[in-house]
Specification:
Elements lengths: L3 E4 L5 E7 L6 H17 L3 E2 L2 E9 L4 H12 L6 E4 L3 H13 L3 E4 L17 E3 L4 H15 L4 E6 L3 H17 L2 E7 L8 H9 L4 E3 L4 H11 L9 E4 L6 H7 L7 E2 L10 H13 L8 H18 L1 E3 L2 E5 H9 L4 E3 L2 E3 L6
Parallel strand pairs: 2-4, 2-5, 5-6, 6-7, 8-9, 8-10, 10-11, 11-12
Antiparallel strand pairs: 1-14, 3-4, 13-14, 15-16
Helix pairs in contact: 1-10, 2-3, 4-5, 7-8, 10-11
């Protein structure tokens, strides 16, 4: 019902990505593209006798970039699978465009709760990353139970990702008995965070939770220590700043702050082999958080192709609905990040 992709003898099977590979958040997307490349390498570079060709579009970690990338990918009739996006705001607009083209997407890093909310999810959207209802809760429990703080301030940047995390943190922190003394927002592209930080300082929090991205997170971190009243306030971000680029942006002010991310030590034994391959291929360790989740997304698509594709001689016929159904039926899949089963919400 969604159409078919016909792959003639000798032609490649295309796997596409939609990732932020330029701009201040490029390390996040590049980290995931490398996960795709290593997965394809581990597949031997082919599926069912056809070489795999990786194609991709830069999303820039903006809604506009997500829309542009999705529109371009949707126009390619040889595509049925997109690995991405990097940022949840890109998926909120891009998923509908890809869905209308019959293209299934699996994101390794979209964590916004509404993307898998049954009332809002598009049928083509799946993810191997966690839901930020989990990450926000864990952050609140850590601040209240482990750090012992009862007064917190929050900052978001208006993105789907940051707003979802702040909401989850706030709900759980208050439920535990904490008090939100200041709730503030900055804009993407802002460089002077002192007015917002001065407002927060007047409320006398013990810590500031700001799950935003690399550039703005760097400015908040570097400038917070310059604002009277915030010299000793504890700072905490999330996985959107889990990158060497954030450390470079924040400088020495990053020392002693907290970031949340998936627990890499909980990944399977094969993750150590992945790290060794990454070092060999790129001469450095992974750049951010979701390389393994994106590796798993790529392998899930490969398994779906092997299950759903129909061979007619040397020609491969790939039904777009069949691919989507195979992804949705994923159960007990052994991935780098653990044992994966898809629920009814993707």
């Amino acid at each position: 019902p969604l159409g078919c992709v016909v792959v003639e003898a000798g032609e490649p099977i295309k796997l596409a990505y939609a990732q932020a590979v330029s701009g201040p958040n490029a390390s996040l997307g590049t980290d995931m593209v490398r996960g795709i490349e290593i997965a394809v390498s581990d597949l031997g570079g082919e599926i069912l006798g056809h070489p795999i060709e990786i194609v991709g579009e830069d999303t820039g970690c903006t809604p506009e970039g997500g829309q542009a990338a999705a529109t371009k990918l949707a126009s390619d009739s040889s595509l049925f699978a997109v690995i991405g996006t990097t940022c949840s705001s890109e998926a909120r607009v891009g998923a509908r465009i890809l869905n209308d083209a019959g293209i299934t997407m699996i994101s390794g890093s979209n964590t916004a709760p509404d993307l898998t909310d049954p009332a809002k999810r598009t049928p083509n959207f799946f993810r191997t990353a966690h839901n930020d209802k989990v990450q926000g809760r864990v952050a609140a429990e850590f601040v209240f139970n482990e750090l012992g703080f009862t007064k917190a301030a929050t900052i978001h940047d208006g993105s789907v990702y940051a707003q979802g995390l702040v909401d989850a943190f706030a709900e759980n922190f208050v439920a535990l008995g904490g008090e939100l003394v200041s709730e503030q927002a900055v804009n993407t592209g802002d460089t002077d965070m002192r007015p917002v930080l001065t407002t927060i300082a007047a409320a006398a929090p013990q810590m500031i939770y700001y799950p935003i991205f690399i550039a703005e997170g760097g400015f908040v971190t570097a400038q917070a220590k310059e604002v009277p009243g915030l010299e000793e306030v504890v700072l905490m971000g999330a996985d959107g700043m889990f990158s060497p680029d954030f450390i470079n942006a924040a400088g020495d002010a990053a020392q002693g702050m907290y970031l949340s991310s998936p627990d890499f030590s909980a990944f399977g034994e094969a993750y150590q082999d992945f790290l060794a391959k990454h070092q060999e291929l790129y001469g450095e360790p992974p750049l951010s958080t979701y390389h393994a989740h994106t590796y798993d997304a790529t392998k899930i698509f490969a398994a779906a192709i092997e299950q759903a594709a129909v061979q007619d001689g040397d020609t491969l016929i790939i039904g777009k609905q069949a691919i989507r159904d195979a992804v949705a039926a994923t159960a007990d899949f052994t991935g780098l990040t653990g044992n994966l089963t898809c629920d009814e919400n993707g």
